[in-house]
Amino acid sequence: MEDAHMLFYRNVIGFDDMNRVVSDKRRNDGNVVLWNVMIDGYVRLGDLKAARKLFDKMHHRSVISWNAMISGYAQNGLFTEAIEMFHEMQMEDVSSNYVTLVSVLPAISRLGALELGKWVHLYAEKIGIEIDNVLGSALIDMYSKCGSIEKAIQVFDRLPKKNVITWNAIIGGLAMHGRADDVFEYFSRMQRTGLVTPSDVTYIGILSACSHAGLVDQGRSFFNHMVNMVGLEPRIEHYGCMVDLLGRAGLLKEAEELILNMPIKSDDVIWKALLGACKIHKNIEIGRRAAEVLMDLAPNDSGSYVALSNMYASVGDWNSVAEVRLMMKDLDIRKDPGCSWIEIDGVINEFLVEDDSHPRAREIHLMLEEISHKLSLTRYRPITTQVLLNMDEKEKESALHYHSEKIAIAFGLISTNPHTPLRIVKNLRICEDCHASIKLISKVFERVITVRDRKRFHHFQDGSCSCMDYW
Q1: How far, rounded to the nearest angstrom, does the alpha carbon of residue 187 sit from its chain's CA centroid?
Q2: What b/e readout covers 167-179, taking b as 16+ CB neighbours within 10 angstroms?
Q3: Is 77 exposed, middle or buried (0-12, 13-18, 19+ CB in 10 A)?
Q4: Whether 204 contacts 237, CB under 8 Å
Q5: CA 8 – CA 416 distance, rounded (Å)
Q6: Model-level pTM?
Q7: Could you tell me where the DSSP H helices lie in 331-423?
Q8: End-to-end CA distance of the chain
Q9: What b/e readout covers 41-72, taking b as 16+ CB neighbours within 10 angstroms?
Q10: Residue 272 burial (C-beta neighbours within 10 Å; 0-12, 13-18, 19+)
Q11: CA gap 385, 457 in Å, rounded
């Protein structure tokens, strides 16, 4: 069978002999266009290593060369690499263009690198790049996902023209921050313009906002309006929002029936939403059924096994926990580790659970001890029910002590001036103990702390959270 790379160049570039192409490149380093076409070809095939190898060999690079690598990394989930490439581009004194900024902003959004995002925004304004609907939407998304929803609103309000994509960006951003009333207001404004028709993405944002706020009746109403009045066909994401909304409100049977009666095939995401709700409400019966479906849909995904194990642990069924863990071991399925990021002075610092690899690990450990001591003075007791392992109370308290978001916060406290806001990004859903303790940390240390977990944003200030303890 012909190699995929050779097939690409035979069909797209028009060369039958790959070796001749490489030879031509070596003889003519000035032919940047040919190099760029080849890099783009490897990127489209998903072979980022081959693309980077060619890129590194180039003696002369154009902005197109850089853009191809940045967008390639970002589109393939290599967000750190995309940002590193963007930094390298600045060090080489290569002027970024419109495409560069649109390409790097999704990576910045994913990692929550707000300071870099602000720099990109200022750069665009400084050199006169037009902030149109596409770049504007990317900036709104960036500010929203980096925790600065007010800045996202500013960008939106300043756009000279707005289309459904920009409206969806601000509605989705507000939903992510749990601002349901604002979502409804912006949706009404969108309708009042008479110029923009809501899309299916619009309703994903609205239903997500209802889910985050526990607004079951409003969620049902918007879902029915979308289907019966607007005539949009629900996607799996809409059903997922409804299952999450119903499940977290305790309406587990209704949520399960909705999945079973959907006219489209269910996926692992929607069953995970139900399984997560079953853990919250300790419904073993429905949770077990959801887990069994998940294990068929995604047999190598650790999420379903971990969720099932945690559900058993939450009711103290350690024999069932052991069975699930043994099954994971037999199938060589490993749990995804908790991971958190914090940006300090433009540098993204990553921390895992019980991470002591950072150069300032000793200082971080001392700050964690200080946090623990100060919280104990408020008579705070760790919520050890969240440690779903069969160990004694002291061991459970120690395990909670080193969750990745707490390590990131400790690093933030030792790395910034008093009263400086801290922004954390986490890959998993925040646990109950971390949520409760961060509320107190925000009060004791007088800090505004923003945490973006896998589901939504939490804004902690003066001992309370924007989610109102519903997440």
Answers
A1: 24
A2: bbbbbbbbbbbbb
A3: exposed
A4: yes
A5: 50
A6: 0.86
A7: 361-377, 393-401, 404-415
A8: 51
A9: bbbeeebbebbbebbeeeeebeebbbbbbbbb
A10: buried
A11: 23
Bridge-based pairing state of the strands 449-452 and 457-461:
antiparallel
Say how many CA atoms lie within 13 Å of 252 toward its Cβ: 20
Query: pLDDT by residue (tens digit) across 301-352?
Result: 888 888 888 888 878 888 888 888 898 888 888 887 889 999 999 899 999 9
> Where along the chain do its domains lie?
339-465
Q: Dig out the tokens for 180 from the structure.
A: 């349901």
**Contact present, 117 and 146 (Cβ < 8 Å):** yes
Tell me the C-alpha distance between 447 and 441, whole Å.
Answer: 8
pLDDT in tens, 218-267: 999 999 999 999 999 999 999 999 999 999 999 999 999 999 999 999 99
In whole angstroms, give the CA distance from residue 350 to residue 366.
18
- Distances in Å between the Cα of 177 and the Cα atoms of 53, 150, 165, 180 are 41, 11, 19, 8
Neighbours of 299 (CB within 10 A): 11
Nearest Cα neighbor of 341 from 127, 126, 150, 108 is 108
The answer to whether the CB of 103 falls within 8 A of the CB of 67 is: yes
Residues of the chain with pLDDT under 70: 1-30, 384-399
* Spatial distance between the Cα atoms of 173 and 150, rounded to a whole number of angstroms: 10
The count of other CB atoms within 10 Å of the CB of residue 295 is: 19
Q: Which pLDDT belongs to residue 247?
A: 97
The whole-angstrom separation of Cα 470 and Cα 104 is 33
Residue type, 212: H
Measured CA to CA, the distance from residue 266 to residue 239 in angstroms comes to 9
Q: C-alpha 222: how far from its chain's center?
A: 25
Per-residue model confidence (pLDDT) at position 25: 43
